[in-house]
Amino acid sequence: MTAFISAHWLDITTTLLGLLYILFEYRASVWLWFVGFLMQALGIVLYYQKGLYADCGMEFYYLSMTVYGYWKWVHGTAEKKELPITRFPRRLIIPWLAIILAIWGIIYWLLITFTNSNVPAADSFTTALSIVGIWALAHKYLEQWFIWIAVDVVTCILYFYKDIPFKGGLYALYVVIAIFGYKKWKRMIDNRPI
Protein backbone atom coordinates (compact mmCIF):
# COMPACT_ATOMS: atom_id res chain seq x y z
CA MET A 1 0.00 0.00 0.00
CA THR A 2 2.83 2.40 0.85
CA ALA A 3 4.46 1.76 -2.53
CA PHE A 4 1.17 2.46 -4.29
CA ILE A 5 0.66 5.75 -2.44
CA SER A 6 4.28 6.68 -3.02
CA ALA A 7 3.88 6.02 -6.76
CA HIS A 8 0.59 7.94 -7.00
CA TRP A 9 0.94 10.75 -4.43
CA LEU A 10 0.86 13.51 -7.04
CA ASP A 11 -2.17 11.93 -8.69
CA ILE A 12 -3.94 11.65 -5.31
CA THR A 13 -3.03 15.18 -4.18
CA THR A 14 -4.05 16.87 -7.44
CA THR A 15 -7.26 14.82 -7.41
CA LEU A 16 -8.17 16.06 -3.94
CA LEU A 17 -7.38 19.62 -4.98
CA GLY A 18 -9.45 19.05 -8.12
CA LEU A 19 -12.46 18.04 -6.02
CA LEU A 20 -12.13 21.22 -3.99
CA TYR A 21 -11.66 23.25 -7.18
CA ILE A 22 -14.82 21.93 -8.86
CA LEU A 23 -16.81 22.48 -5.67
CA PHE A 24 -15.76 26.14 -5.65
CA GLU A 25 -16.49 26.43 -9.38
CA TYR A 26 -19.95 24.90 -8.89
CA ARG A 27 -20.64 27.48 -6.19
CA ALA A 28 -19.19 30.27 -8.36
CA SER A 29 -16.74 30.98 -5.51
CA VAL A 30 -13.60 33.03 -6.09
CA TRP A 31 -11.69 30.47 -3.99
CA LEU A 32 -11.49 28.23 -7.05
CA TRP A 33 -8.63 30.38 -8.34
CA PHE A 34 -6.46 29.86 -5.23
CA VAL A 35 -6.98 26.10 -5.21
CA GLY A 36 -6.49 26.04 -8.97
CA PHE A 37 -3.09 27.71 -8.70
CA LEU A 38 -1.78 25.02 -6.34
CA MET A 39 -3.36 22.22 -8.38
CA GLN A 40 -1.80 23.52 -11.62
CA ALA A 41 1.65 23.87 -10.07
CA LEU A 42 1.62 20.23 -8.96
CA GLY A 43 0.06 19.19 -12.26
CA ILE A 44 3.13 20.40 -14.14
CA VAL A 45 5.22 17.75 -12.44
CA LEU A 46 2.60 15.00 -12.73
CA TYR A 47 1.93 15.44 -16.43
CA TYR A 48 5.60 15.73 -17.31
CA GLN A 49 6.30 12.48 -15.49
CA LYS A 50 3.48 10.75 -17.39
CA GLY A 51 4.50 12.03 -20.82
CA LEU A 52 1.42 14.23 -21.23
CA TYR A 53 3.46 17.10 -22.58
CA ALA A 54 0.59 19.21 -23.89
CA ASP A 55 -1.18 18.90 -20.55
CA CYS A 56 2.07 19.82 -18.82
CA GLY A 57 2.47 22.91 -20.96
CA MET A 58 -1.17 23.76 -20.42
CA GLU A 59 -0.59 23.97 -16.70
CA PHE A 60 1.66 27.03 -17.23
CA TYR A 61 -1.19 28.71 -19.10
CA TYR A 62 -3.58 27.70 -16.30
CA LEU A 63 -1.27 29.24 -13.71
CA SER A 64 -1.43 32.59 -15.45
CA MET A 65 -5.18 32.24 -15.96
CA THR A 66 -5.72 31.64 -12.22
CA VAL A 67 -4.27 35.08 -11.57
CA TYR A 68 -6.28 36.63 -14.42
CA GLY A 69 -9.47 34.78 -13.43
CA TYR A 70 -9.20 35.91 -9.84
CA TRP A 71 -8.70 39.52 -10.89
CA LYS A 72 -11.52 39.33 -13.46
CA TRP A 73 -14.00 37.81 -11.00
CA VAL A 74 -13.20 40.34 -8.26
CA HIS A 75 -12.65 43.50 -10.31
CA GLY A 76 -14.02 42.54 -13.71
CA THR A 77 -16.70 45.14 -14.27
CA ALA A 78 -16.29 48.81 -15.10
CA GLU A 79 -17.68 49.58 -11.63
CA LYS A 80 -15.03 47.29 -10.08
CA LYS A 81 -17.78 44.99 -8.81
CA GLU A 82 -17.87 41.21 -8.81
CA LEU A 83 -18.30 39.82 -12.30
CA PRO A 84 -21.79 38.42 -12.96
CA ILE A 85 -22.47 35.14 -14.75
CA THR A 86 -23.39 35.86 -18.38
CA ARG A 87 -23.78 34.01 -21.67
CA PHE A 88 -20.99 33.43 -24.20
CA PRO A 89 -21.34 36.12 -26.88
CA ARG A 90 -22.54 34.62 -30.18
CA ARG A 91 -20.17 36.83 -32.14
CA LEU A 92 -17.24 34.97 -30.54
CA ILE A 93 -18.34 31.43 -31.41
CA ILE A 94 -16.85 31.21 -34.94
CA PRO A 95 -13.58 32.99 -34.04
CA TRP A 96 -13.09 30.77 -30.99
CA LEU A 97 -13.87 27.60 -32.96
CA ALA A 98 -11.20 28.65 -35.47
CA ILE A 99 -8.77 29.32 -32.60
CA ILE A 100 -9.48 25.88 -31.10
CA LEU A 101 -8.84 24.13 -34.43
CA ALA A 102 -5.66 26.10 -35.05
CA ILE A 103 -4.28 25.45 -31.56
CA TRP A 104 -5.24 21.77 -31.80
CA GLY A 105 -3.36 21.46 -35.09
CA ILE A 106 -0.28 23.29 -33.85
CA ILE A 107 -0.05 21.31 -30.61
CA TYR A 108 -0.65 18.04 -32.46
CA TRP A 109 2.18 18.87 -34.87
CA LEU A 110 4.48 19.81 -31.98
CA LEU A 111 3.73 16.56 -30.15
CA ILE A 112 4.31 14.30 -33.14
CA THR A 113 7.40 16.23 -34.24
CA PHE A 114 9.22 16.88 -30.96
CA THR A 115 7.99 14.35 -28.38
CA ASN A 116 7.47 10.65 -27.93
CA SER A 117 3.76 11.13 -27.11
CA ASN A 118 1.64 8.12 -27.93
CA VAL A 119 -1.62 10.10 -27.54
CA PRO A 120 -0.99 13.28 -29.54
CA ALA A 121 -4.53 13.71 -30.91
CA ALA A 122 -6.31 13.41 -27.56
CA ASP A 123 -3.65 15.34 -25.63
CA SER A 124 -3.67 18.22 -28.11
CA PHE A 125 -7.50 18.23 -28.36
CA THR A 126 -8.07 18.56 -24.62
CA THR A 127 -5.36 21.19 -24.39
CA ALA A 128 -6.78 23.31 -27.22
CA LEU A 129 -10.31 23.11 -25.86
CA SER A 130 -9.11 23.84 -22.31
CA ILE A 131 -7.48 27.08 -23.46
CA VAL A 132 -10.92 28.36 -24.42
CA GLY A 133 -12.59 26.73 -21.41
CA ILE A 134 -10.47 28.48 -18.79
CA TRP A 135 -10.83 31.79 -20.65
CA ALA A 136 -14.64 31.34 -20.68
CA LEU A 137 -14.56 30.47 -16.96
CA ALA A 138 -12.51 33.59 -16.22
CA HIS A 139 -15.24 35.61 -17.96
CA LYS A 140 -17.94 33.69 -16.04
CA TYR A 141 -19.72 32.55 -19.20
CA LEU A 142 -22.45 29.99 -18.56
CA GLU A 143 -21.51 27.92 -21.60
CA GLN A 144 -18.03 27.23 -20.23
CA TRP A 145 -19.64 24.16 -18.67
CA PHE A 146 -20.26 22.64 -22.15
CA ILE A 147 -16.60 23.07 -23.01
CA TRP A 148 -15.57 21.33 -19.80
CA ILE A 149 -17.96 18.44 -20.38
CA ALA A 150 -16.22 17.69 -23.70
CA VAL A 151 -12.76 18.10 -22.14
CA ASP A 152 -13.67 15.96 -19.13
CA VAL A 153 -15.01 13.02 -21.16
CA VAL A 154 -11.89 12.79 -23.33
CA THR A 155 -9.54 13.47 -20.42
CA CYS A 156 -11.15 10.76 -18.28
CA ILE A 157 -10.47 8.15 -20.96
CA LEU A 158 -6.98 9.50 -21.62
CA TYR A 159 -5.94 9.46 -17.96
CA PHE A 160 -7.10 5.90 -17.36
CA TYR A 161 -5.12 4.93 -20.47
CA LYS A 162 -2.03 6.74 -19.13
CA ASP A 163 -2.31 5.09 -15.67
CA ILE A 164 -3.45 8.16 -13.76
CA PRO A 165 -6.48 6.46 -12.21
CA PHE A 166 -7.35 8.96 -9.50
CA LYS A 167 -7.40 11.90 -11.89
CA GLY A 168 -9.23 9.72 -14.43
CA GLY A 169 -11.94 9.06 -11.85
CA LEU A 170 -11.97 12.74 -10.96
CA TYR A 171 -12.65 13.69 -14.57
CA ALA A 172 -15.51 11.18 -14.71
CA LEU A 173 -16.95 12.95 -11.67
CA TYR A 174 -16.26 16.32 -13.33
CA VAL A 175 -18.63 15.34 -16.16
CA VAL A 176 -21.47 14.83 -13.68
CA ILE A 177 -20.63 17.98 -11.71
CA ALA A 178 -20.38 20.02 -14.91
CA ILE A 179 -23.93 19.03 -15.85
CA PHE A 180 -25.19 20.11 -12.43
CA GLY A 181 -22.94 23.19 -12.52
CA TYR A 182 -24.50 24.30 -15.78
CA LYS A 183 -27.99 23.93 -14.30
CA LYS A 184 -27.00 25.83 -11.15
CA TRP A 185 -25.36 28.70 -13.03
CA LYS A 186 -28.36 28.88 -15.39
CA ARG A 187 -30.69 29.21 -12.40
CA MET A 188 -28.41 31.92 -11.03
CA ILE A 189 -28.74 33.85 -14.32
CA ASP A 190 -32.49 33.27 -14.56
CA ASN A 191 -33.08 34.41 -10.96
CA ARG A 192 -30.83 37.46 -11.13
CA PRO A 193 -32.68 40.75 -10.74
CA ILE A 194 -32.59 42.86 -13.87
Helix count equals 7
As a whole number of angstroms, the C-alpha radius of gyration is 17 Å
Structure summary, number of beta strands? 0
Would you tell me the overall average pLDDT? 91
**Overall number of structural domains:** 2
Beta-strand content bin: under 5%
Measured distance between first and last alpha carbons: 56 Å
Report the structural category: mainly alpha
SSE arrangement, N to C: HHHHHHH
GO molecular function: nicotinamide riboside transmembrane transporter activity
Pfam families: NMN_transporter
Keywords: Cell membrane, Membrane, Transmembrane, Transmembrane helix, Transport
Subcellular location: Cell membrane
Secondary structure layout:
Elements (H helix, E strand, L loop, with lengths): L1 H25 L4 H19 L3 H23 L17 H22 L5 H19 L5 H18 L3 H26 L4
Helix pairs in contact: 1-2, 1-7, 2-3, 3-5, 4-5, 5-6, 6-7
Walk me through this protein's architecture.
This protein folds into 2 domains: 83 residues; 108 residues, no CATH class. The radius of gyration is 17 Å and the shape is globular. It has 194 residues and is an all-alpha fold. The model has no long low-confidence stretch (mean pLDDT 91). It contains 7 helices and no strands.
